[in-house]
Amino acid sequence: RPRALATAMAAARRAGKPVVVLKIGVSDLGRRNAIAHTGRMAGPEQGWSALLERMDAIPVRDLDDLVETLTLFDGASTLASAGLPQRGHLGVAVATISGGETSLICDVSAQEGLRLAPLTEATLEKLRSGLNKASLIGNPLDLQNTRTSRPEVFWESLRTLCADETVDLLAVRLNLTERPRDDLRQLYRQVAEVAGQQGVATVVLSRAYERLDPAWADYFKELGTPFVLSYRNAIRALARLVEWTEKVDRPFDQPATVPPGVDASAAGGSAPVALDGAATRDWLAGAGIEYVASEIASSPAAAGAAAGRVGFPVAVKAVVPGLVHKSDLGGVALGLTSREEVEQACRTMTSQVAVAADGAVPSFEVQRMVTGAEVIVGMAQDPAWGPIIMVGSGGVFAENIHDVVWDLPPLSRSRAQSMIERLRGYPLLRGARGRPAADVSALADVIVRFADAVAADPSALAGADLNPVIVGPEGAGACVVDAVLLGPAAREPGRPEPASPELEGSDAGGH
Q1: What is the distance between the alpha carbons of residues 153 and 143, in angstroms, rounded to a whole number?
Q2: Residues 105-164: pLDDT tens digits?
Q3: Would you say the pTM of this structure is higher than 0.90?
Q4: 48-59 pLDDT per residue, tens
Q5: What is the pLDDT of residue 504?
Q6: What are φ and ψ of residue 3, in 5° steps?
Q7: pLDDT tens, 290-301?
Q8: Measured between alpha carbons, how far is 479 from 289 in angstroms, rounded to an integer?
Q9: Torsion-angle region of residue 321: left (phi > 0), alpha (psi -120 to 50) or beta?
């Protein structure tokens, strides 16, 4: 009952309660035969991923990950009484007794996205002096064997680390015998007290899934200190805790409605068919999305005349029913500056397309040439969630780059902006190496209008690619220069229509 779950998750998010989710049953089967780029990049997990991101839920990878993340978050309320911030950035410091392990912790932290607290120069200078190690990283902190050889240095180093203004939480890995010893119980109790005196909460880590008596877990629970097993899962859970404390105070941007899911049993019907050019442009116009100035011509000579009306330079594309990825077959020519170039390009296309498309004779779309950043905006149908929206780095290499993010329609302006900013290629849109910044605001408008149109009639399309959307410099706008819209698959005779999904809860469909 995905929509009942979504309603419950939205209620938890509004109440500021974290939700940890282990999603199973993810498979890549079935997407290789999709026509559109978006369909081929949309695995069965994408709708769920979009939901979890929208709800600020915390996805985990397996049962160990689930248990350790829950252990850390379950202790968050206890940690709060020791001074752990519940909102804003959470500064994490790690201390251990092995120099090699500090390097490992650095590696794992980078891999799992945990940015350790950046200690002040005064703290670093004091730690390096006390531990007599000029190359000391500081965070993670290598306490060496000072607990037994120089205990005064050990405790002073911990106090110095916890006193740093950037540190809110101390994660420590010290000695852990198979069964708790009285001296080690006292050690961890004193560490928690030293940290607490500086307003810093404590978490205890183990290096791996070691052979430890359950009495250790009982002791740390009594101490009010979360005990998380293995560096990898502990650091991953800490990264999620940091991210959660940053998200929880932000406004919760939830969709007004969620379109109904599609009927998975309809997969046995006919394959979706691409809409023709006129229907595609009509759909875009109805959505308020600009399509580049263009004309359709039936011959090379007519294309040359159309180019004069559109205005040079132009792009010319072969138009054949069912031909989607034109550039793969030599069906696209760019930057043509004269009537002669246009007519010659059309003649060349005619021969190339005829070979590739069983002798089909193309007509030609003549477009005004526009330049800028290339972005793909698309939609695929998810069995659980219906249409899901994709934004990515676009162009003919969209599938190769695979720089995409997903969300559920409809989209607010802030959600559209968030999708753009989550792209790996976003820095290029903001301007790089002397390039002008792109009109990101206009791109966000395209995304919002596209998602609104999809949500208004979620069964009208089986899939869609607006690829590329050309985003000009700031103030120049954004327009679609190629689009593939797929009509819904024809239902086999005798196959029943799907029933509308039942939305549960007082705000069902409004999560």
Answers
A1: 9
A2: 999 999 999 999 999 999 999 999 999 999 899 999 999 999 999 999 999 999 999 999
A3: no
A4: 888 898 899 999
A5: 34
A6: -75, -30
A7: 999 999 999 999
A8: 7
A9: beta
Question: Which residue from 398, 310, 316 is spatially nearest to 352, judged by alpha carbons?
Answer: 316
Please state, for a pLDDT cut of 70, what percent of the chain lies above it. Answer: 84
Q: How, if at all, do strands 92-96 and 169-173 pair? A: parallel
The whole-angstrom separation of Cα 260 and Cα 383 is: 10
Torsion, Cα 376 377 381 387, to 10 degrees, reads 160
pLDDT at residue 396 tops 80: no
DSSP sequence for 158-187: HHHHHHSTT-SEEEEE----SS--HHHHHH
Alpha-carbon distance of 45 to 298, in angstroms, equals 43
**Do residues 393 and 424 make contact, with C-beta atoms less than 8 angstroms apart?**
yes
Side chain identity at 137, as an amino acid letter? Answer: I
Tokens of 307: 């180019």
For residues 267 and 203, give the distance between their C-alpha atoms in angstroms, rounded to a whole number. 50
Q: What is the DSSP string of 374-439?
A: EEEEEEEEETTTEEEEEEEE-STTHHHH--EEEEPSS--HHHHHHHHHTSTTHHHHT--TTPPPB-
**How confident is residue 505, by pLDDT bands cut at 50, 70 and 90?**
very low
What does the block give as tokens for 288? 């308020």
